[in-house]
Amino acid sequence: MGADMSMPKGSNTPVPTTALRVELGWRSGPGVPDADASALLLATGKVRSDGDFVFYNQPAHPSGAVRHEGKKPAGAGVTDTLSVDLARVEGAIERIVVAASADGGTFGQVPGLYIEVTDAVSGRPVARFDSPGATVETAFVLGEFYRRQGGWKFRAVGQGYSSGLEGLATDFGITVDEPRHTAPPAPPAPVPPPPSPATAPVALPPPPVPGSVMPPPPPVTPPVTAPPPPVTPPAPQPVRLSKVTLTKAAPSVSLAKQGGTSGAMRVNLNWQMRQQPSGWGGRWGRQQGEVDLDLCALYELADGRKGVVQALGNAFGSLHRPPYIHLDGDDRTGAVASGENLTVNLDHKQDFRRILVFVTIYEGASSFADLHATVTLQPQHGAPIDFSLDECTVPSTVCALALITNTGGDLLVQREARYLVPERGVSPQRTIDRAYGWGMNWTPGRK
């Protein structure tokens, strides 16, 4: 379905299948803000809990009905994709709202914004809506799926918000953990300290009258013990909307400050191949299978042990025993939804001294100059950290991505984006070892 077949605002269309791909897209360029797709699953107009909000920090609904798959370059633009399985939507859910939020600007600065729904199996178009006339809005409800007479329909909505993702989310009942600009509460009135035992007045009984009989002292009443207060279950944690993009000007971030102190942290690498490998400024295009990149990690543990996690030599590591780093597999497509992934167990962060995440070209390209790659670190309990690799201008086959260092119990993530050129006869792994002083012995390996 092309732009000339775009639905008018407010119109609807039947959804003939249940497995769907929902793509938000826009044209990229200088000064164009980033945008993010999200979905809210609604019962009687509101979410039932914060778990009904699917977005970059909470990428999957518990039911499996909606997943946030992520972004990828697409020609002269960018797409952000959700997968929707209407067959898995719980009976209480009446609507699924699909929204976009702008990061670092307004939708008036985002050209060509659209939402397109396709059959996830056949790829056939189901619906498309090109959102018109955006100005100061920082969030948009672009469309919604809703139940009608035992089936599902899709409506083109186009409702804008000037309060961003936070305003949109709270409007549908989400509790958001973001700083608000409110006046601080007044300090409590000072409470005078109790008098010290040395100066406290003591009430004495009156002196006895001669010849009188003193009354017996009153019986001692045992103190009444108040019942313990009822145990209040902990309140659910609000949703964090923040995310971190590392740049040359701001290259590092503390995981603890972003809430990433425990659980698993996924490190994802995805890439695109130039359609014109030797040209500069050409269009990006998916060319699956043409290049094989390997995501790897050098590690040094607190007890001094060193090693590497990589597909070469089947050194995939382990998540629950040293080195507490595991490489998920070997991807050869660069797809955002999969790509190359390794996982770091943050429950063992005290066991790490440093981790260097790097990537090598195994085959299919002579240099990173022909590629565009994005790195995302997603802690289980914290804001995602992402960055793009700078354009490569040297014949590099190995690139240091991020250095994670234990600093007083916290892990500091440093963007490296450092392209290295191996000397003749020197492997990419030995090249990265020398550059960062790891001091390991290397032998040839296969995968």
UniProtKB/TrEMBL annotation:
Region (Disordered) residue spans: 176-206
Residues in TerD domain copies: 5-172
Biased composition (Pro residues): 182-206
Family (UniProt): Belongs to the CAPAB/TerDEXZ family.
Protein name (record): Tellurium resistance
